[in-house]
C-alpha cells in the first residue's frame, strides 16, 4: 500500500483508484492524464504487459465517461528492447485510444530517443488524424527545428523544460538559458501551430507568457501540471477557463517516482518530513 505521504504525488496502485482521483478532479474542472508508472524494461514481456494495461485502462476510461487521457513512456513499452517493439506497442495503444475516443500522449525520454519517438509520433498522428500527442524538451538545442517539423501535423505537442541530464553538445545547462529557450519555443508554437499546444510547466512566468501569446496570436493551448504540484493553481486556472490537465502517475512502481519528487524541491522534502513526524 502507498503510504499517505506519497499519496500527494501518486494516485494509488491500481487503475480504479486513479480513476477515482480523476473523477474528483473533473468535478473541479481539471482533466486527467494517467500514467502507469514503469520505465526501462530490458525484456519484451513486461513491456507488452504494460501496453496491455494501457489498452485496458483506455477501455475503462471510455466506460467511465471521465475527461481523461493517458501518457506513456517509450522505454516502458519496449524502446530498450528494440525500436520495433516500442512502435508495435505504441500502435496498439493509439489504435485503442482511437477506438475509444481517449487521447494518447507520448512522453519524451533522454536525447538518444528523440528521433525514434518523433518518427513514431509523426506516422501515428497522421494515420489516426490526431488523437496522439508528443512531448518536446526546451533544453535540447534541436527542439525549435523539431517544432517546425511538428507544426503542420494534427495532434498536440507538450512543451516541457526537460527532465534529463543531457550532454552539453546537445543541450542548454543553465537554468536561465533553458527558460529563454522555453519562451522561444512557446512563441514559435503560438505563431506556427494551429492549436494543440500543451504548456507542461509549473512555472508561473511561463504560464503568464503563454497567456500573453494566446492574446497576441489567438492560438488555443492547454496547461499541464503534475499531480501534487501547485494543485490550487491548477483549479484556479481551470476556473479561469483555461483547459487544465493534471498528469497523474499511478501503479505499484511508485517509490522511485515519489523519491524523485521529494528530492527535486525543498518544499516537497519538508512536506514529507512533517508527514512522517506527525
Ligand atoms: P521549474 O523550472 O522546475 O521551476 C520554475 C518555477 O515553477 C519555480 O520557481 C516555482 O515558482 C514553480 N514550481 C516548480 N515546481 C514547483 C513545486 N514543486 N511547487 C511549487 N512551485 C513549483 N520532462 C521530460 O523530460 N519528459 C516528459 O515527457 C515530461 N513530461 C512532463 C509532463 C508534465 C505534465 C509536466 C508538468 C512536466 C513534465 N516533464 C517532462 C518535466 C519537465 O521537463 C520539468 O523537469 C519539470 O516540469 C520542472 O520544470 P517546470 O517548468 O515545472 O519548473
UniProtKB/TrEMBL annotation:
Domain of life: Archaea
Molecular functions (GO terms): nucleotide binding; proline dehydrogenase activity
Proline dehydrogenase domain residues: 19-271
Keywords noted in UniProt: FAD, Flavoprotein, Nucleotide-binding, Oxidoreductase, Proline metabolism
Keyword hit for Phosphoprotein: no
InterPro entries named in the record: FAD-linked_oxidoreductase-like (IPR029041), PRODH_bac_arc (IPR008219), Proline_DH_dom (IPR002872), Proline_oxidase (IPR015659)
Pathway where this protein functions: Amino-acid degradation; L-proline degradation into L-glutamate; L-glutamate from L-proline: step 1/2
GO terms classed as biological process: L-proline catabolic process to L-glutamate
EC number: 1.5.5.2
Catalysed reaction equations from the record: L-proline + a quinone = (S)-1-pyrroline-5-carboxylate + a quinol + H(+)
Manganese among keywords: no
Cofactor(s) annotated in UniProt: FAD
PANTHER family: PROLINE DEHYDROGENASE 1, MITOCHONDRIAL, PROLINE OXIDASE
The protein's name in its UniProt record: proline dehydrogenase
Origin species: Haloarcula marismortui (strain ATCC 43049 / DSM 3752 / JCM 8966 / VKM B-1809) (Halobacterium marismortui)
